[in-house]
Every structure is written in C-alpha cells, then in structure tokens.
Design a protein that fits this description.
The complex is a heterodimer. Chain A folds into two domains: about 160 residues, no CATH class; about 50 residues, no CATH class. Helix content of chain A is about 75%, strand content about 0%. Chain A is globular and about 60 Å long. The model of chain A has no long low-confidence stretch (mean pLDDT about 85). Chain B is mainly α. Chain B has a domain of about 80 residues. Chain B has a two-stranded antiparallel ribbon with strand order 1-2. In chain B, a hairpin with a 2-residue loop joins strand 1 and strand 2. Classes of the chains: A mainly alpha, B mainly alpha. The interface between A and B is large, with 96 and 77 residues.
Chain lengths: ~230, ~140
C-alpha cells in the first residue's frame, strides 16, 4: 500500500471515533473555557493528558481548587481501567520500537476498541505502523474538537445534539464484530454479569473500573481452572 | 489561579493518566508470551467492548412520569441501539450501522416524539436548527 492509501485506510477506520471525539472534544473545550483560563491550556490538556472522562473530571477538580495529591489519586483511579487494556496488548506492541511509547500513551477506550477489532491484522511492523496511524488520528480528532470548542464554542450554528451516540454505536458494532470472530459466549456472559452487577452495586464513577476489574479476575480464575483441568502446560 | 499552578496541575494529571496506561508494559513486559497473558488478550477485549456498551446505555430510562421518555436517556437510545444491531447484522458495514444509528438518534433527540410528520422525518438531520424542535412542539 502506498503511504496515502495507508493513511486513508487508517482514517476510514477512525471515522466513527471522529464523530464521537469532535463533539466531545468541543464539549470539553467549551466547558474548560468557562473556568476563565487561556485557551491553550485546554489544548495542552488534550495533547498531554488525552483522556475523555479524565479531562472532564479535571475541569471539576480545577473549579473546586482540588489539591495536587487529590488530582493525582483521582485521575489515576478514574483511568485505572487502562491497566487492563495494556495486559491484552503486551504481545501486540512488542517490538514496536519508537512507536511504542506513543501507542501506550494514546491508549484510550476508543483506540483500544479499534486496535483490538481489526480482524485479520497485519503482523509486526506493518501492524505497529497501522496502529500508530489510528492512534495518531484519534488524538487529532480529539485535539481538533477541543480547539473548535475552546475557540468558537458559542458561535457554532450546527445543532449537534445527540451526535455523541456515535461512540455508543461504535461499541455496539465492535461487540458484534468480536462476537462473530470469537464465536464463544464466555466473555459476553462475563461482561453481562460484571457490567450489570456493577451498574447495580457501584456508584457511577467506579462503574467501569469495577466491571472491567471483575471481568479480568474472572478470566484469571477461568485460566487457572482450564489450566488445572488440562494438567500442567 | 496562576499559570505555573495550572501547568503543574496538567503535568500531574498527564502523568497519572499515562501511569495507568504504561504500568502493565513496565511490570509485565517479560511475560508477553505467557499463556495467561495470551488468555487475557483473547477474552478481555470482547468483554471490555460489551461492558462499554452497558456503560454507554447506563442512563436508559424508557419512562418518565408515566410517559414515553424521548429525551437522550430514554427510548431514542434503545431504538437507535437496536437499529445499529439490526443494520449491522444485515449489512455488516460498520460505518453504515454507526451513521444510521447516530442519525436516527439525533433526529429523535432533536425533534422529539410529538407530531413528527413524514416530511420532518425526511428532512436532513444536519441542517435542522433549534427552531425545528419548537416547530414540532417539543421545546420541553
């Protein structure tokens, strides 16, 4: 594939994320500007923090003049579901060289979703390059959205109410794709149990971490169970 | 708040976020081929996708004060979600499923349920201004 074809391929894959990140990034930009800080601070946050929910929480923390330790702990806790994302990409990112730090840095929910849903993916360097392009484009949409929100938020004429549903739709499509590829009910049953359980038992800010953490633990137990029933490997 | 304080705030927030993403790679880099890691790599992504769907639909409230709830957390979210599922099982085109579901969702959220005439349903979603909602008696 030529360079242009490669970027076109990657941008097609990120289109649904674009529909979600542009309006959500803009929402963040608008929200941030209400604090009365300079616009480039919003840009810096989208460039260097790059976490949807994390940045919205940061606005709240800023508005409430939270202490720096509180900021560190709250941000870490909110994003700690990412711990589990890395687990399933350890092998995939191996040998990614200079791209690896950015691949890890840019591992949002949406990027993780796209990267783990590529069907028959290329191996090695070609895969790393494509993953890198996807990661970079996703952050580009987020940063562009932030800029649009910060610069011209109130002036936007376009009635975009509801466009953030694109991310929900993306997750639904990716779940269906995963199901048709795997053809096993196990992870989906586990997700239903932990997801609905967390919905009932946990406050909203701990919902994702609780569900993903519990799902990881169940998979761990499942591994030990089949490991034992198959004898030593 | 001073600029330097803000910059420190951003730096700490950035470091804490990056820490959650990089820790597994630091702690477990030598075990990337361990069967347990491969097991998680196989089953965790589909489980996470499904959990993200559940999370995205967490505010689903079909009824509000005894009426059909047509606000963003009501029926539109479930109708649009089902549309995405059906479209995707039918055509297997990710972008098409997402655009169809999102377009329908925007239409429902922006117009509301009342007297959505056939022409209104056909009107392009993207040029509809705020006046559209009032015209169809759904300013509330």
């Amino acid at each position: 594939m030529s360079l242009i074809a490669q970027w076109r391929y990657a941008s097609l894959q990120t289109l649904p994320v674009m529909f979600g990140y542009l309006p959500l990034g803009a929402a963040f930009g608008i929200l941030f500007m209400q604090l009365g800080h300079p616009w480039w601070m919003a840009l810096a946050m989208s460039l260097f923090i790059y976490a949807g929910a994390g940045q919205f929480m940061a606005v709240t923390l800023l508005a409430n003049q939270a202490g720096l330790l509180e900021v560190a702990v709250a941000t870490f806790m909110l994003n700690s579901r990412h711990l589990f994302y890395g687990l399933s990409l350890l092998k995939r990112f191996k040998g990614a060289g200079w791209r690896k730090p950015y691949l890890i840095f840019a591992l949002t929910d949406e990027t993780y979703s796209l990267l783990t849903n590529q069907g028959k993916q290329a191996q090695g360097p070609a895969d790393h390059a494509n993953a890198w392009r996807i990661s970079l484009l996703n952050q580009l949409w987020w940063v562009l959205g932030t800029l649009a929100g910060a610069m011209a938020g109130a002036l936007l004429e376009f009635d975009s109410r509801g466009i953030e549903f694109a991310l929900t739709a993306l997750f639904i499509v990716l779940t269906l794709e995963q199901a048709s590829r795997l053809r096993q009910a196990l992870p989906f049953v586990i997700a239903l149990l932990t997801g609905l359980g967390a919905l009932i038992l946990l406050p909203e800010q701990n919902l994702l971490l609780g569900a993903i953490g519990a799902a990881s633990l169940i998979l761990l137990a499942h591994y030990h169970w089949i490991d034992r029933s198959q004898g030593s490997r | 708040m001073e600029t330097s304080t803000l910059l420190i705030f951003i730096a700490i927030s950035a470091l804490a976020t990056f820490a959650t993403r990089v820790l597994p790679f630091i702690a477990l880099s030598r075990h990337a081929d361990h069967p347990l890691i491969l097991h998680l790599g196989r089953y965790l992504p589909p489980a996470v996708m499904m959990i993200l769907v559940i999370y995205a639909l967490r505010d689903f409230r079909p009824l509000a004060e005894g009426h059909m709830n047509m606000t963003p957390n009501g029926l539109p979210v479930i109708i649009a979600s089902l549309t995405v599922v059906v479209m995707h099982l039918w055509r297997r085109n990710a972008l098409l499923s997402i655009v169809a579901g999102t377009g329908l969702y925007m239409l429902m959220v922006q117009l509301g349920p009342v007297d959505v005439s056939f022409t209104a349903a056909l009107a392009p979603v993207f040029i509809r201004g705020k006046a559209g909602g009032e015209k169809f008696g759904y300013s509330k």
